[in-house]
Design brief:
With 338 residues, this protein is α/β, with parallel strands linked by helices. 36% of the residues lie in helices and 20% in strands. The chain is globular and about 50 Å long.
Length: 338
């Protein structure tokens, strides 16, 4: 049996404590044709020296500065040759044979561009993890959610999502992508810096007709919020700014105008919610995100309009997840459909 080459790329920035804790599980992966790469984003701690000393078989590629998640991966992957890339967060613990079932699924169907494993919480190990759970969906107004996680409600994994499924987006915490597809769309959008870039990547591929899949036979455990916590104003800014940019890029022009207009008002409600919670930094971050978006409208124009007629809408939820969650009180993925 032949095994396509898989490159697991861990992007690192001052994350020695995570490397010490989680690299052993990756290093001991059993997949036969595997290269493990530490892509370092100009760390100032001892991450690189530690990895060289303790894990000599790991390839180390270094960037000259911190390019963020999106730009950092782009600069590293430009120097990597493999059939499949795996973008793996440094705070992820992998399990035995976590690679094999994903590659088998993708090898069986050349229209699959991206796949994610099941993401469980590292600390609450029977629960799904916020960043990806059992695969990502998106609603008509651009709000992402997951099978197993809607807003801040996270489900316990009881096997309810153990089916292989086509989804809308795969989590950047553990994202498998066919290298030819990565090159076709020129990787991540470096302008995003961090947050939402994996959703944008999947959306651009779906605009070309590709599939994004969830593989429950592969399980990993994710710490989450290793770089920015959920109450970080900077994280709030990136999420709101990048979400608007993603809508502008990937929706047909007329539809984008309508959806973004509605989103401005929905975001204003989020701003008010932050104010009432006393999170004034996050409220200001939303305002800052809108100002930046409006000042850079031209930069968010899509150059791939011709590909949108092939849009694969699997994982696209035609309703409003905000309405369902906050008004109809439907807090689980399955509850949306019953």
């Amino acid at each position: 049996m032949s095994y396509p080459k898989v490159a697991v790329i861990i992007l690192n920035w001052n994350g020695q404590k995570f490397l010490e804790q989680f690299l052993p599980s990756v290093y001991n992966s059993s997949y036969p044709n595997l290269e493990i790469i530490l892509g370092d984003n100009a760390s100032t701690d001892d991450s690189v020296a530690f990895t060289k000393q303790v894990f000599p078989r790991i390839t180390i590629l270094q960037n000259d500065k911190n390019y963020g998640y999106a730009g950092g991966y782009n600069h590293i992957i430009d120097r990597v040759e493999a059939d499949y890339y795996v973008l793996l967060n440094s705070d992820v613990e992998v399990t035995e044979n976590w690679i094999e079932p994903v590659i088998a699924m993708m090898e069986a169907d050349p229209t699959i561009a991206v796949t994610q494993p099941k993401l469980r919480s590292y600390y609450q190990r029977n629960q799904f993890e916020y960043a990806g759970a059992a695969g990502g969906y998106i609603d008509r107004y651009g709000y992402p959610f997951c099978r197993g996680r809607i807003f801040d409600t996270i489900e316990t994994d009881t096997g309810q999502y153990d089916d292989k499924a086509e989804i809308f987006w795969a989590s950047g915490a553990a994202l498998f992508i066919r290298s030819s597809c990565w090159k076709e769309v020129k990787g991540l959008d470096a302008g995003f810096f961090a947050h939402m870039e994996e959703i944008d990547l999947c959306w651009r591929l779906k605009n070309r007709g590709y599939k994004v899949m969830y593989c429950p036979d592969s399980v990993v455990y994710h710490v989450g919020a290793g770089t920015l916590n959920s109450d970080s104003p900077h994280k709030t800014y990136l999420n709101f700014r990048n979400n608007l940019a993603m809508l502008k890029k990937n929706l047909p022009a007329g539809q984008a105008f309508v959806i973004i207009f509605i989103r401005f008002w929905l975001d204003f409600l989020s701003l008010l919610r932050f104010v009432f919670q006393g999170k004034f930094g996050c409220a200001r971050a939303i305002s800052k995100a809108h100002i930046h978006f409006l000042g850079n409208l031209g930069k968010h124009s899509s150059k791939e309009e011709k590909d949108k007629s092939r849009f694969n809408n699997a994982g696209f939820y035609r309703g409003s997840i905000v309405w369902q969650y906050f008004i109809n009180k439907k807090h689980t993925f399955r509850g949306l459909f019953f």
